[in-house]
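This part of the workshop introduces the protein records we will be handling. A record pairs a protein's sequence with a compact description of its fold. Comparing a sequence with its tokens is the quickest way to learn the format. The record below serves as our worked example for the rest of this section:
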Amino acid sequence: MKRVVITGMGVVSPLGNTVESMMDGLAQGTSAVQRMDEWSIYQGLHSLVGAPAVLENEKQIPRQKRRSMGRLSLFAAQAARQALDDAGIDEELIASDRTGCVVGSTMGSAASITETFELILPERDIAQLPSTKFFQCVSHTAAMNISQYLGISGTVLAPAAACASGLQALGLGFDLIRSGRQDRVLCGGAEELHPTVTGSFDVLFATSSHHNDSPKTTPRPFDRDRDGLVCGEGAGILVLEEMEQAQARAANIYAEVLGFSTCGSGAHISQSNADAMVRCIRQVLMESNIQPADVDYVSAHATATTHGDVEEAKALKDVFGNTVPVSSLKGHMGHTLGASGAIELIASLKMMEQGTLYPTLNLENIDPECEGIQHVQEVMKRDVRTIVKNSFAFGGINAALVCRKL
């Protein structure tokens, strides 16, 4: 099996549209959560908070390519371009059939899907639909549009596993390279903020609804007073590359991917399960040939739901005890859903590079049921060489990835 490294990263996030601006926001303890006043037109929507990103410079993408892109695909294309530039991948390598693209999302563009039905339903007239709208709505819209925009002719895959989509994309890219099927793969996830997306969590009583007038105080991962998640948006794309090829072209290497695991719980469609999380984390540690004591930081999924945070804390306590620093970045950026695994991995790799761990924003009073792990509550200076990134999605879909500094 070939060794796989990360050589490029690009991001569009609620904290900014570059990796540097996102990290500046984390360093300053910034919350990107806002009150979404325009959502108040929707009856029955209790949560009026979100973490939007800013869509800018989209016209740098040629109109012919841009017409098939919804908001999330525009984010993904911009992050992909950043990642390739960061990795120093030239156009010849991008066009090679040894270059692939694996990018996931929860679904297609929520705004485009909504617009589609608003156009069709009043008169039941399919002819009202623009020809490009379909390409904005399909579940593989991000992967498809990136590959068309950049001219990628290798393997193109689009995992759709809700909040685990981005991390599953990285795991699939890892497998494609270590098995020798591809030499480099653009991997990650993308998502867009829309009231219908927040509403899908709202009807499950999973959203934050008590902080509409104080948006910076929510979400509150692991906190005693948390009341649910806050949806965000953006895209995170990483370049995974076969190590010898990366070294041959003197590429900057952020870390090596040591292992990936994903599994189902088979227990409940919307409730997290600590036993399945433990199994997933232990599997990835075993594949990575490391022990829990070798891990220097865990980037938790921790969305600030009542049940999910407790189950994740139980799982982390079971595997790591209270010896490994743990934080969730969702207090800063909200839950970027299918993009979260990739965006938060990028932030974790930069924290590794800087030797600085950023805390869980809004974690003021640790829930007694979330105790027993080493919560990061203030900026921590630490030598970080090995990290674990977790993502846990509806449907009991669990994913974990291990990266190590070379």
Remarks:
- The first helix runs from residue 19 to 27.
- The chain is about 35% helix and 20% strand.
- The chain has a mean pLDDT of 97.
